[in-house]
Amino acid sequence: AEELRGLARADVVLSIQDNEVDYFQRAGRPVVVVGHSTPNAFVEKRYTRVERLGYIGASNKFNTHALEALIPAFIAHVRTTGSRLSLHIGGNIIKALQGRPGFDDDCVRFEGYVHDIGAFMEEIDLYVNPTLIGTGLKIKSVEALSHGVPVISTATGWDGLPALEGFHDAPDIATLMNTIARIENEGFDTLTKLANFSRASFAEYEMNLEVNLARLFEAPRDELADWAGANPRFIGNRQAENPGFLRLGDL
Predict the structure, then answer these.
(1) CA 112, CA 102: separation in Å to the nearest integer?
(2) Is 191 exposed, middle or buried (0-12, 13-18, 19+ CB in 10 A)?
């Protein structure tokens, strides 16, 4: 209640992702979605098979919780199936995980701080977001999309983004591991489909972010309020009739 009273003082409220619009609208102010801004940096790579999985994260309780669940399940999969998969973990999340009993297996590589995200993304075949708890837009998912790489995720890790059913909506780590095994078996076709989906999704995301930012800073307050009331969402809303909106289906 206190948060909504504070937001009621604003001319316009910025939401970082689409799924939070309804909540912020309770303040009675226009809401415009302005997501995380990151440049288009699509990697040029042909995906034939999956061998190297990637993840980048900061050292916080949400990321630690996710990898504490993923790493043992991943190691068990490799040991029981004889898989050649390896999981490459970047970022200072390794401070919370490296050296833990049961986590030191050849299939798990702790890469540490990533100086060049583009080079990291180019080296992997599949980006995995195993986030299980938390709110807001997951920046790691947007960064993976911005590089156009194949991505799979839990439903929590994909909150606020358009999902490809069966690949970005895993309810738990067991389902996520089943998806990894499926992609391992299917190879080229599925990896290529996921990479194309990432590029199309980010193209939509980038275009709509530009439209919303331009309208936010250029439109008079009354006009902005009318527009935001009619078109608050910028991803996944198929009902908004606005020529500036680029829809995933149109790509």
Answers:
(1) 19
(2) buried
pLDDT at 250: 52
d(CA 10, CA 4): 10
| pLDDT tens readout for residues 99-158 | 788 788 899 999 989 999 999 999 999 999 999 998 777 889 999 999 999 999 999 999
Sign of the CA dihedral running 46, 50, 56, 60: positive
**Three-state DSSP class for residue 48:** coil
> Token pair of 242, please?
């606005």
pTM here is: 0.84
Report how far residue 58's alpha carbon sits from residue 50's, in angstroms, rounded to the nearest whole number: 25
E strands, the chain, are 13-15, 31-33, 52-56, 86-90, 108-112, 126-129, 151-153
Compute the distance between CA of residue 68 and CA of residue 103 in angstroms, rounded to an integer: 9
